[in-house]
Amino acid sequence: MVATILLLFSFLNFINAIVPDCKDGKIIFDQPSHKTSYPANFSSPGPVFPANFKCEFQINVPEGWYALVELSLISPNDSQSSAVIFDQLNRSETVFVAESESFYFIASGGRIQFSTGSDGTKFGFIVSWDTYSPFIFHGGRVNASDTVPFIPIHYSTGSIVISAETKVSATVLRPSNGTLLSHFRGIIFFDGPSYNNTKNLGTGLQLWNGNTQYVSTGNSMTVLILDFYITANAFVVFQDYELTKGIKSFQGENCDIYNPCGSFTLDATNGPAALQIYTRDDVNFISDLSGSGHLDVYIGTASQNKTNLVTTYHVGETSSSLPQQVFGYFKTFLLTDGNATITFNNTFIYGTLYVSAGTTGFFSSDRYGTYAVQNCQATLSSSPYKSTVKIRWSVSYIDLVEDSWLEVYGDQIINNERVTYIKNYNASNPPHLNSYEEFIGTSMNVIFNDRGYRNKGFLMRYEIEKSSNRIFMLLNFVLVFIVYFD
C-alpha cells in the first residue's frame, strides 16, 4: 500500500514537471495572426521545470510592428534560475523573478535565454504582435533659453517628435506608483525626426537605470510609446542639451502626497548631479540636507541665466534654513560638488510652516523666473506656538503687472496688544527690493496674486529672530518689582 502511494506521488510530480522539448536549444517565434505562448496554453505561474533546463527563445518582429512578451518566472529562494532578455540592440536584462511582467521587442526582434538552477522553477510567457499606433504628436520644442522643460502628457500610445534649438536631451522620472517602472520598457527613443531608419537610443527603463540622459546628434528626437499604462502621466523630460551638457548624472521622481518623494543621495564627485522632481501638489517640503557640497535649487530647469534660481545651500550648514517649502510643479536640485542626501517630508504639503528664532528661508511663486500665470500663498507661525518673535522679510524680486498684487500680513504685538500687521503692494506701489521690513509678532501670511496676467513671479526672503519685547517685558517687570519693594 505504501509503495503504491509513493508511486502515485512520483507519477504526479512527473506529470507536473512535464515541459515542452527545446530542440537544438532554441525555439523561434514568428509573427502569427494571434497570440501564442510557451508552453502552449500557458497561464501564470506556469508549469514546473526540472533542474539544469536551458532554452533560448527567438522572437522575430517585422518593420513597423512590435512584440509584447508577458513573462512569469517563479523559483525557489536558493535557485539560480533566470531569464536573460536581449532586446533589438542586444542589450541584456537579467530577471530572477517576474509575475506577468511586460517586455517589448521592435524590429528585428529579441531573444530570451532561460535556465534553471534547481527543481521547482515555474516559467512561461505569452507573446503577441501589433503594429505601431498611427498617432503622432508634433510640436514639442525646447530652447537653450528655457526655464521650464517640455513634459508631454497625452492619452494615447503613439510617437512624440521633439525639436531643439541645438540638440534634444531626454531624461525620465520614476513614477509615483513604482509598479509602473517596468512599463518604461515600452518607451523607446530614436535619434531623429521619426522612428524609421533612425538610430534606436534605448528604452525608458535603460535610461532610468543608467542615471543618464539620451542626447540626439541633430536637433530632433522621436519617442515611441507602446504601453497604454504609461500614457496620461508625466514621465519623460525634454530640454535643450545646452542646459544639461555639464550634468554628469540624473535622478528623477514623479511624486505626490500619496506617494512621497523620500530621500535621494546625489554624488557630484565626478561632476554635477541633478535631481528632477515633478509633483502635482505644486510644493515639496525639504526636511533635511546632509553631506557636503553646494546645492542649487531651481523652479524649473537649471537655466543658463539662473533667473529661476531660488536658493543655494551650503550642504552641512543648513540647520537654520530648514525646513523649507519649495513651490512649483517641476524643480531641479543641482549638486555642483560633493556628496549629499536630500530628504523630503511629504506629510507636510500645505498649511502653516512653524519656525523658531534663528530660522531663515524664502517664499516664491510656483513658476518663479518664467513668464507665466503664477501665484503663491504661504503662512509662517512661531514655534513654540504663539511665542513672540521678530519677523524680518524682504522682496528680492517681483513682477507686478496690470492688476496683480502682493499682500503681507500677520499677528503683530504692540505694547502687549495683538493687532494686525499688513502691507499691500501693486504695480503703482511696488515694494523696495532687498530692503528688510520687520515687526514683532507671532505669524506672517504672504499672498501673491497675478489676477490671471502672465508675469515672472516673485521671490521673498525671511528671517526669524528673538524678540526684543521679551527683554523689554523682563526689564519692565524687574523695574516694577524694585519700585514696589523700595
Automatic annotation (TrEMBL):
<keyword id="KW-0732">Signal</keyword>
<dbReference type="Pfam" id="PF24511">
    <property type="entry name" value="DUF7591"/>
</dbReference>
<feature type="signal peptide">
    <location>
        <begin position="1"/>
        <end position="17"/>
    </location>
</feature>
<protein>
    <submittedName>
        <fullName>Uncharacterized protein</fullName>
    </submittedName>
</protein>
<dbReference type="Pfam" id="PF24512">
    <property type="entry name" value="DUF7592"/>
</dbReference>
<dbReference type="InterPro" id="IPR056013">
    <property type="entry name" value="DUF7591"/>
</dbReference>
<feature type="domain" description="DUF7592">
    <location>
        <begin position="141"/>
        <end position="226"/>
    </location>
</feature>
<dbReference type="Pfam" id="PF02408">
    <property type="entry name" value="CUB_2"/>
</dbReference>
<dbReference type="InterPro" id="IPR056014">
    <property type="entry name" value="DUF7592"/>
</dbReference>
<dbReference type="InterPro" id="IPR035914">
    <property type="entry name" value="Sperma_CUB_dom_sf"/>
</dbReference>
<feature type="domain" description="CUB-like">
    <location>
        <begin position="20"/>
        <end position="132"/>
    </location>
</feature>
<feature type="domain" description="DUF7591">
    <location>
        <begin position="242"/>
        <end position="346"/>
    </location>
</feature>
<dbReference type="InterPro" id="IPR003366">
    <property type="entry name" value="CUB-like_dom"/>
</dbReference>
